[in-house]
Amino acid sequence: MSKRAKRFPAILMAMAFVFFPMLIWACSVPVFRYALELWPPDDFEVVLFYNDPLNDSQKQLLEKIRPLQTENASVPNIRIHEVDLKAEPDPRWLEWWDKNKPADISKPWLAVFYPASTLKIKPLWAGTFSEESVKMAFHSPARQTVAKRLQSGDSAVWVLLECGNKKKDQAAHKLLVQRLKHLGETLKMPDLKPQDVQAGYLSIRPEDLKLDFSVITVAVDDPDEAVFREILLNSEDDLKDYDEPIAFPVFGRGRALPALVGKGINNDMIDDASTFLSGPCSCQVKRQNPGFDLLTSVNWDQLLEEQINDLDDKAQVEVAVETEPSQKPETTPPSPKPANPTPTSDAGGDLPQANQPPTEDSSATRSLLAWIPLAGIPVLLVGGLILLLARSRDS
Questions:
Q1: Residues 6 or more apart in contact with residue 303 via CB below 8 angstroms
Q2: What does the pLDDT read at residue 54?
Q3: Which region, left, alpha or beta, applies to residue 82 given φ > 0 means left and ψ of -120 to 50 means alpha?
Q4: Which long-range CB contacts under 8 A does 149-154 form with residues at least 24 apart?
Q5: pTM of the full predicted structure?
Q6: Would you kindly state where each structural domain of the chain is located, as residue ranges?
């Protein structure tokens, strides 16, 4: 097995070793679902360099992608830094610009960096600031497909980056599809603890929680997915060195586990990743779990809310179908009157029945009365101790 093939299970083994003592307190919600519920994606650092002031159309474009100060915003998970090169820019960005500036510096230039939490200082993509480049950087059909499948209930969507070798690509795709189908049918999720549901870790009904995996492919020469490929391939330093298909399981709110490469796309490695995702969330802190966040333009809060509403509507339809009578219910005949009706008191209240079992109140009363004699025991013991001490002093 190659070093790359050993890397991912080693990460999971290290996680298990570190967090095994926590398993007794582990959240019982599966990792894939906990991530969708409670792990917001980290912000990518987007830097806009310019020498001359932005014109009106450029300002409007900037406002389109700027994160809003409101919840449920359908904008990229980014943090924007404007760098006016003729002012006094931040030295860290100025240093990068001096080393990497393009030949034509008359136009605004956009550079996209990974979130600060990754400690990566190399941008994953850079280009001119335009409608076309912004759309390519922050939107793509594959990323939207991933989001829609996660909304529809997929536990994880495996993104397969093709290498261009048809035989290798088809073999990897076939293996993924077959193995994931098997795992979706055989893997078991943990039993949910009622306290985890009550704590709000699961916003859907437990019976609506399903295991399901799917696969999408991204062609090596697809221009619409050029930036998406860069986001994935630059997540590790050596991924671009391989002329092999590469697979990433994506789950939660656009979080990907480390890559499986070439021969590393095998049953054991797929099983390891899927078992981790379907297992209990032993560590609820996102950054202490393996993986990295993707750059998306998805309103994840709204997506989750729509999923909940869809499941609720489906449940109501199922209940209505099950309870809809096929014919009018038969009228229940009146109960026959007893031959000897129970006598009542003059005041109109029911008289106690001779063989009537005691009610809960009467049982509780008797239980309480039974404890009253025992309550006197401490008094007797204290009194006896006082008498003994008095006699000892007299003697």
A1: 147, 150, 151
A2: 95
A3: beta
A4: 149/214, 149/216, 150/36, 150/250, 150/251, 150/252, 150/303, 151/303, 151/304, 151/306, 151/307, 152/307, 153/210, 153/212, 153/307, 154/212, 154/213, 154/214
A5: 0.74
A6: 3-313
